[in-house]
Each structure stands twice: as C-alpha cells, then as structure tokens.
Model the fold of this input.
Amino acid sequence: MLRNKEIKILYLFCGFVGVISVAAVSYINLTAGILTFISLISIFIAFFLFTRRRYENIRKLSKYLASVYTGQKQMDIRDNVEGELSILKNDIYKVTLTLYEQSELLKKDKIYLSETLSNISHQLKTPLTSMFVMTDLLSDPNLPEEKKEEFLSKITNQLKRIEWLVTSLLKLSKIDAQTVTFKRDNIQVRRLIDKAVEPLLIPVELKEQNLIVNCSEDIFIEGDFNWTTEAILNIIKNCIEHTDRGGSIEITCLQNPLYTEIDITDNGEGIAEEDKPHIFERFYKGKNAGTDSIGIGLAMSKSILNSQNGDVDLDPNHRTGTRFRIKFYRQIV
Done:
C-alpha cells in the first residue's frame, strides 16, 4: 500500500497539516492541542486501516485475475456486501466467467475441427488409394478387356462418392455458417414427399421393396422446398439401404395444432441400441452401416430441418425396423 506514490503524498500532506493544526491549537490552549492531537491520530489510524483493507481486497482481485490469466480453475469472488468494490467484484466475475465459457467452446470447436479433418481425410484416402491401385493395373497392356471395364466402373463410382462427400460438406459448412437463406414458402407435404421419393424409385424397384405413402393433400408446411426435399430424401434413402429385398417403407403424414409430423418407417434390420444416441452425428457409422457409408446424410438432414424450425428423431418405442419422426413446428403468433 505504502508503495503507492499517491498514498505517500496524501499521508505526508495530512501529517503536515496535522502538525500545523496541533501546533496552532496548542499555542492557544495546551489541553485543546492535546485533544486535537489525539483526535488526529485516531482519524489517521482509522483511515490507515480502512485504506489497507481496501488495498487487500484489490490485491485479492489482482491475484484472482492472475489465476484466470494462467488458466487456473475459477473461484467465486462475489459477495453480498454493498459498495463499489463489491460491484467491481461481481462485474469482474461475470466477465471472467464469460471468457472461461468462450474458452471452453473454442477448445471444443478445436477438437471438433481436428476430428472432422481426420474423418474427411480418412473418407478421401480410402477411395483415392483404391483408384491409384486400379490405375496402375489399367496401365498393364495384357489386362483383359472385361477387367478394364470393371476397374473403370469402380473408379467412376469412387469419383462419384468423393463428389457427393465434397458437395455434402460444402452444404453443411454453409448451414453451419448460417449463410444459407431458407425460403418460407407454403409447401404441400404430399408434393414434397413425391419429389423426395422420385430419384429413389429405381433402387426401390431393384430391391423389390414396397413403398407406401399415406399423406393427405391438404397438409401444408412452411419451409424451403429444395432443402427440405433433400433432408427427407436422405432419410428415405437410409431406410431403403437398411431394408432387405422385399421389405417395405411406409411414409405417413400427421398434423396437430402444434406441429406437422412425417413418419418414415421401415421393417429392416433396425438400429442397434448403442448406435441410436449417435445416429445423427457427422461421420458416425453404426455396426449395421454399409461399406460405402460415409455417415453424413442423416447429420445433414437434421441440420437442414433444425434450420427451419423442425427436427428429426428416432421413435424409441418402435421395435421392428426403424421409424424416423420428422416434425415441423408451427409458428406461434
């Protein structure tokens, strides 16, 4: 405290004024001078103790900020005492708490970015390695013609897989960055489902599956037609891929005062219990996932729906196959 230059000057000034005052009063009346001296000493001691206490609190604040700066665990320095110092303590605590929360979020984002880059690298490395091997084999002049056609077909499929991965990642990054402007059109749900199912009719026919759509034409939602079509398409595609030949996929529409629901149900192999909490995570592949699965389709569907006041989840009570529940919540005015 005494290292503070302003405090030193203040004490010297008060002492100088005190000495002059005591001398002047003592010159007039010695008893009054003694009483004045005692009073000034008492005031000086009280002021000294009060100032030292405030500096002790400031020193604790400084120590607290130093601990925050070095990344140590935070302490709660708030108190319920009135005064400017208490207000300052509370404000400093709020600021440090906000900084700590932001730091934790940045750490999580850094870990997530590292894991995402690792997953992307793995997804690209596998088909690229395969294509390099097949390209080397194609350079053999003695390779049979049917083998050349087979390798070229596989290379084409791998390139399409990479293209789909890159396109999907770009879409997800735009959604995450909130640079996508989702339209708020009035969409007929039956038309939306028909559009989503259209490119999947050939796979359904090849697997001899039965696709059933129970959706009234008087059900409407608000959203972006193209983006929502893609979200529903990915979910239906997932059901088709995990349903055996001759199985069935049923799409049902429901509506109530709170939301419009689209249920997509299959009688396939279902999703393992340990996989259910993670099925909508990016790059997550369950135990029943196919060899060509990337684990990004359902994650993209959920991101698209969440960006339009909607959501998708699994029906926990459905035991045979899988049931996805898509909900579009109504705007409450």
Notes: The radius of gyration is 36 Å. The CA atoms of residues 265 and 323 lie 4 Å apart. The chain has three domains: 5-100, 118-176, 185-329.
